[in-house]
Specification:
Protein name: Large ribosomal subunit protein uL4
CATH superfamily of the largest domain: Ribosomal protein L4/L1
CATH topology of the largest domain: Ribosomal Protein L4, Chain: A
Radius of gyration: 27 Å
CATH class of the largest domain: Alpha Beta
Function: Forms part of the polypeptide exit tunnel.
Helix content: 25-40%
Organism: Citreimonas salinaria
Structural class: alpha/beta
Distance between the termini: 15 Å
Pfam families: Ribosomal_L4
Family: Belongs to the universal ribosomal protein uL4 family.
Strand content: 5-15%
Largest sheet: 6 strands, mixed
């Protein structure tokens, strides 16, 4: 697959050949769903917590005698049946992460890249460099029409470019090692540098 390469100022910078093995697959929604679900579950904190009957602050004294009251038998006020008593089988801190084979994760990333290429929302730029000025970069991004974009660079992101992009709403910048299915699908436009294309192809082949 051949794609035109542009510069940040909108100029032409030649073309690049994208490997069909990585960018030319037929996207599968089931694979993308599995990988996104794995990512989000792994990121979930799992710090939700309720108090059980051993942790509430009532007395443990029996509230009234066992027999002769005409009412039900009860022990202390911490029982789940009472207001402000302990919660039965409520959430406790835990990990929500689950396993996903590496082959599926790799395939999911390839399908996410292919989905952007197929929909025409994949852009390749020559290089992602800036002098750290947010205003200048914001004008360039606006002129290119990128409203919600993810820019993936090579092994390392240019410091000036990262600093300039930091305060632009709807723009994310990642090194190639940080490329992931969730962030790619979350943004409307996927922008790869030539170094990013090389790094992703080397990683996924």
């Amino acid at each position: 697959m051949k794609l035109d390469v542009i510069k940040l100022d909108g100029g032409n910078a030649g073309s690049v050949e994208l490997t069909d093995e990585v960018f030319g697959l037929e996207p599968r929604a089931d694979l993308l769903h599995r990988v996104v679900r794995w990512q989000r579950n792994k990121a979930q904190q799992g710090t939700h917590k309720v108090k059980t009957r051993s942790e509430t602050s009532y007395s443990t004294k029996k509230i009234y005698r066992q027999k002769g009251t005409g009412g039900a038998r009860h022990g202390d006020r911490n029982a789940p049946i009472f207001r402000k008593g302990g919660i039965y089988k409520g959430p406790v801190p835990r990990s929500h992460a689950h396993d996903l084979p590496k082959k599926v994760r790799k395939l999911g990333l390839m399908h996410a890249l292919s989905a952007k290429a197929k929909s025409g929302n994949l852009v390749v730029i020559d290089i992602a460099e800036a002098d750290g000025k947010t205003g200048v970069l914001a004008k360039q991004i606006g002129a290119l029409g990128w409203k919600r974009a993810l820019i993936i660079d090579g092994p390392e992101v240019n410091e000036g470019f990262a600093a300039a992009a930091r305060n632009i709403a709807g723009l994310d910048v990642l090194p190639s090692i940080g490329a992931n299915v969730y962030d790619i699908l979350k943004r409307d436009t996927l922008v790869l540098t030539k170094a990013g294309v090389e790094a992703l192809e080397a990683r996924l082949k």
